[in-house]
Recover the amino acids of this structure.
């Protein structure tokens, strides 16, 4: 079946109707899924296997039959482990149909057809009884339903239901227990993902400070978890204010309650400072004794954690609603509130606020100031990046005159305010939709009557919107919230083209141009998420590999995907190369822009793929780079812009070279920017 879906093209801005195959969504889901990453997670797999063996043995020692319920079986892996460990029968429940189908094939291929029954249902739909999906209740409950926040994928309601209806009282559970840990820290870097710091501007008539509206001050932000690879956060970027403490734990072998609740712990700060952030992670004990433990603890808590890389489970950063000064040794209370799916934190000073636990209101955070809806966390970080702001200030100073009529096209941008302070005194326009927030923002800076917000798409801009002025300076960062891949911000070029009739003949466009850059890299770990597994703990899971490959080839083949590479170490195997340029001083051409060439491989290593990013040339000699900041040593380790996602194109076969002699000398590429569709197609060959 085909359906039509309307969307605004992220690059060209044009409304388009896409014919979607009904299979499109699930192919996307499989192609970009975390199944490969989980199957590559050796530490996880080994410990599950140990835990499952131990649980089966305990049941057998009691002289009982081992009946396993595996909720969310995926490939069937944990059920196959149980069957191999001697379980008498396994019910493998999987809600996602393509995965359930794959599990049937994998189970059969591995010879467990008689021992494992795959049930394609959500666990809450599963029936028990002579005519039910399950003949009887299970006495071993195996699951892997956890996300970085532990409960975000609905583990609690699933367990609650399973204990009520699907498993016996006193059942064994693998994992047996999960424990959530927290640590209080101060970190300017992480705090800059949540609050807008004052922006200092040296203007001709003195220093100006751009401030945020007061509503932003104690706004709790958005409830979505901030999950990151905390192991990539250098210790110099945060100050530890408390020891690691246990916040709460869940025993999965007993009835679980999913209803909202809160937990409170007392902390004694080990250092004075500003409490801003709660870092959190969890571990799971696969057995009751806690001997088989799988932990997400970061490197400063567990030194070997860097070697246990995984992307499906990371660590959480929670922002306190306000920063709180704390004193070394002076106790404070930290409260974790949770509903069925998410967790959030509050800090209270011990003295004077000794409210009892019941009085703590369990109310999910909602952004009141609107800024957290407009700016996501990397965007906050970008806006707070003083160096970046400095580049815009320098270039605006160069191009603005007192009689400049300036139009800014970018989402949620501070450029109009900078432009106002830096000379464009007369009048300024800002194409923008988040009008409500910006009215407050301009008011907080006494700029209500200085900057005019125009709520129109660029192609619908009229002379009366501009009060019959012509634009002499057109500016953009460019940044658009609809951009996923780096080149989607070329929307600025399309918008510039659409407003051409409103520009003066000698208009200045800032940035004047952009360039696309490319480099071949070897990833330390990220390659795992797109690499076939073959076998996992002795089980043949190639069916899964084939399925992922098939989905990758489904329409969206030859596509790059966005990743924030500061979280994923890699080394450069080639020099960075500029591959395409886009001249914003001219309109978007009718023809496609394409290039072919080759890059020399300079280092030995595995060529996992190419990384691509954009650089914006604001004015002569002033650029903003959204990708590679530097190659930090002779080994080729890369440093990436921490506020942007870069595009990663994974090669379908990995080019490996052990020595410089057997180095393939170069990788050839062909890259094409289709100006009609705004898409970039690429092809790489050895
Ligand atoms: N057990 C596999 C896969 C884990 S991924 C492994 O360890 O490798 C979790 C899987 O659980 C996903 O495939 C998801 O679709 C499924 N799932 C999550 N909640 C479920 C529920 N309540 N009932 C059935 N399937 C569920």
């Amino acid at each position: 079946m085909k359906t039509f879906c309307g969307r605004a093209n992220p690059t060209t801005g044009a409304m388009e109707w896409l014919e979607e195959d009904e299979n499109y969504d699930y192919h996307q889901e499989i192609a970009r899924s975390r199944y490969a990453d989980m199957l590559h997670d050796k530490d996880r797999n080994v410990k599950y296997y140990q835990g499952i063996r131990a649980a089966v043995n305990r049941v057998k020692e009691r002289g009982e039959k081992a009946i396993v319920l595996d909720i969310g079986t995926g490939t069937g892996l944990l059920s196959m482990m149980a069957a191999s460990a001697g379980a008498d029968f396994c019910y493998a429940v999987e809600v996602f149909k393509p995965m359930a189908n794959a599990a049937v094939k994998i189970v059969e291929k591995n010879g467990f057809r008689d021992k494992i029954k795959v049930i394609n249902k959500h666990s809450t739909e599963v029936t028990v009884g002579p005519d039910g999906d399950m003949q009887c209740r299970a006495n071993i409950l195996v699951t892997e339903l956890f996300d970085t926040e532990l409960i975000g994928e609905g583990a609690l309601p699933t367990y609650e239901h399973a204990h009520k209806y699907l498993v016996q009282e006193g059942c064994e559970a693998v994992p047996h227990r999960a424990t959530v840990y927290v640590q209080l820290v101060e970190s300017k870097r992480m705090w800059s993902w949540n609050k807008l710091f004052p922006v200092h501007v040296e203007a001709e008539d003195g220093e100006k400070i751009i401030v945020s509206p007061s509503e932003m001050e104690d706004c709790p932000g958005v409830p979505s978890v901030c999950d990151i690879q905390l192991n990539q956060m250098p210790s110099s970027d945060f100050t530890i204010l408390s020891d690691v403490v246990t916040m709460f734990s869940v025993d999965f072998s007993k009835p679980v309650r999913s209803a909202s609740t809160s937990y409170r712990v007392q902390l004694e700060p080990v250092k004075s400072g500003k409490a801003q952030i709660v870092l959190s992670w969890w571990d799971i004990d696969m057995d009751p004794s806690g001997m088989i433990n799988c932990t997400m603890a970061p490197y400063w808590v567990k030194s070997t954690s860097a070697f246990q890389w995984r992307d499906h489970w990371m660590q959480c950063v929670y922002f306190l609603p306000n920063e709180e000064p704390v004193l070394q040794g002076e106790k404070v209370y930290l409260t974790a509130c949770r509903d069925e799916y998410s967790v959030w934190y509050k800090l209270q000073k011990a003295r004077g606020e000794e409210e009892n636990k019941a009085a703590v209101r369990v109310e999910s955070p909602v952004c009141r100031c609107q800024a957290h809806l407009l700016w996501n966390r990397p965007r906050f970080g970008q806006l707070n990046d003083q160096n970046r702001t400095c580049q815009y200030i320098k270039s605006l100073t160069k191009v603005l005159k007192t009689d400049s009529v300036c139009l800014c096209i970018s989402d949620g941008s501070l450029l109009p305010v900078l432009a106002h302070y830096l000379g464009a005194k007369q009048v300024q326009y800002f194409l923008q939709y988040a009008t409500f927030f910006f009215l407050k923002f301009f008011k907080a800076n006494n700029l209500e009557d200085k900057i005019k917000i125009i709520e129109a798409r660029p192609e619908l801009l009229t002379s009366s919107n501009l009060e019959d002025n012509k634009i002499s300076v057109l500016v953009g960062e460019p940044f658009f919230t609809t951009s996923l891949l780096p080149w989607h911000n070329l929307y600025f070029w399309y918008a510039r083209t659409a407003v051409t009739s409103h520009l003066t003949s000698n208009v200045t466009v800032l940035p004047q141009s952009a360039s696309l850059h490319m480099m071949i890299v070897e990833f330390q770990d990220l390659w795992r998420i797109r690499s076939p597994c073959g076998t996992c703990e002795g089980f043949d899971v190639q069916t899964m590999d084939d399925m992922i490959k098939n989905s990758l080839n489904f329409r969206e083949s030859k596509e790059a995907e966005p990743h924030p590479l500061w979280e994923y170490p890699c080394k450069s195997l080639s020099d960075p190369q500029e591959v395409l340029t886009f001249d914003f001083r001219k309109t978007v051409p009718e023809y496609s822009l394409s290039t072919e060439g080759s890059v020399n491989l300079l280092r030995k290593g595995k060529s996992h793929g190419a990384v691509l990013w954009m650089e914006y040339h604001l004015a002569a000699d002033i650029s903003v780079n959204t990708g590679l900041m530097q190659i930090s040593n002779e080994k080729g380790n890369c440093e990436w812009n921490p506020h942007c996602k870069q595009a990663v194109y994974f090669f379908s076969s990995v080019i490996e070279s052990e020595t410089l002699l057997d180095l393939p000398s170069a990788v050839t590429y062909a890259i094409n920017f289709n100006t009609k569709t705004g898409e970039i197609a690429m092809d790489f060959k050895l």
The chain has a mean pLDDT of 92. The chain is about 20% helix and 35% strand. The CA atoms of residues 285 and 293 lie 5 Å apart. The first strand starts at residue 2 and ends at 8.
